[in-house]
Specification:
This protein is α+β, with helices and mostly antiparallel strands and about 400 residues long. It has three domains: about 5-90, Double Stranded RNA Binding Domain (2-Layer Sandwich), CATH 3.30.160; about 95-190, DNA polymerase, domain 1, CATH 1.10.150; about 200-400, hpI Integrase, Chain A (Orthogonal Bundle). Helices cover about 45% and strands about 15% of the residues. A hairpin with a 3-residue loop joins strand 6 (about 250) and strand 7. Helix 3 (about 95-110) packs across helix 7 (about 155-175) and helix 6 runs antiparallel to helix 7 (about 155-175). The longest helix has 23 residues, at about 365-390. The protein is globular, with a radius of gyration of 25 Å. The N and C termini lie far apart (about 55 Å). Belongs to the 'phage' integrase family. It comes from Campylobacter ureolyticus. This is Tyr recombinase domain-containing protein. Pfam families: Phage_int_M (PF22022).
Amino acid sequence: MNKLTNSYIKCMAFNTRLECLGNNIYVRQTKKKVPYMDILTTEIEKKLIFRKKLNGKLKQCVIGIFPTIKIEDALKKAIIIGQEWELQENKPKYYTFSDLFNLTMTEKKYSTKPNTVENYIKRFNSKAFDILRNKEIGSIEIVDIWRVLDGYSAKYESKKKVRTIINEVFKYAVKRGIVEKNITPNLSEISGKKAEYHSYLDPRFPQSLIDYLKFISKIEKENIKTALLLNLLVPLRASNLLLISADRLVTIDDNIPCIYLEAEKMKSGKKGEKPTTYPLARKIYNFLKNNTINFTSAENLNRYIRKFKHDKIIGAKPYMTLHSMRSVFASHVQFHGSDIIGSENLLSHSGVAGTSSVARHYYRSVPYKRGYKVAEWWFDFIKSLCEKNNINLFDLFEKRG
């Protein structure tokens, strides 16, 4: 019997033993308790594992979870991993930091979002890494690492990201016995100004939000005006906000209007995982359904939003960004006593919202309904502010949507 088929894996009886499917691919099944509505339900997880013996040593890695990854994709992935393992085994045991960085990034491709890998590579190509780039990993001293970190001045967040890259490379080297110890400094040792929280408009001073709405209303370019208004009304991350269009609109459960986003487009999502559906206020859903929006880039929008000056902007930065609107939304929800769980759903903080893989699959998670109610409340709240202060913004949804 050919076990290397999706139908076989789907219908196989539950067994805790590691079962070989062929071509060095194994499956391990485990039972998990996951929350669904107000009960716990049992879900069987089928983990596809690639195992191969090289030079007398058994190597293995998880390829993915079925059915998130299909067997045909698992076979392709296994071939690539096997080839990389053989290259690593046959390569001389002299590694520069650059060699290990490349091997680390190759491994990260299977477990990390593409954007994260791209950002690692972009930062690694900066001049600051010249100190480590061609050094043999065993000859690197902690003073060399500090010289790289100090190249980022007082920018704590940048130092933190660079430290993460160095730490990942040393973790990879320690795991494979290339070096004995990870000498990367701890985060607590890194000095610099921390960005404690995002800048936002304090809900205790409602005039600041009113002034921001007036700022948007005076923008002449309609696509900029629309983008910044939607950025306030739909508290998605900027990269996700720029994806919204009519062809991504769906309705779920009791006709809840939502936007459909691929998992890999979300901050914590990975390719092959189930997509995310995100609740929208009904008026926004109708507007998107009936209109084409020509968004500009996030960089351009951020340059525009920084033109807004106000003495009630609080936070680590003296100006606002597209991301600031998420903090504006969250702080107003809390200040006015709206539903926190619903707001977390709108912020796509899925861990807090409690949407299990079962709930995501069937689109029947309670947070969707709670998120939709908060979306409607936030739309009405901002609309009411505009009407009370004669700010002409919401006719956009009336005449076009």
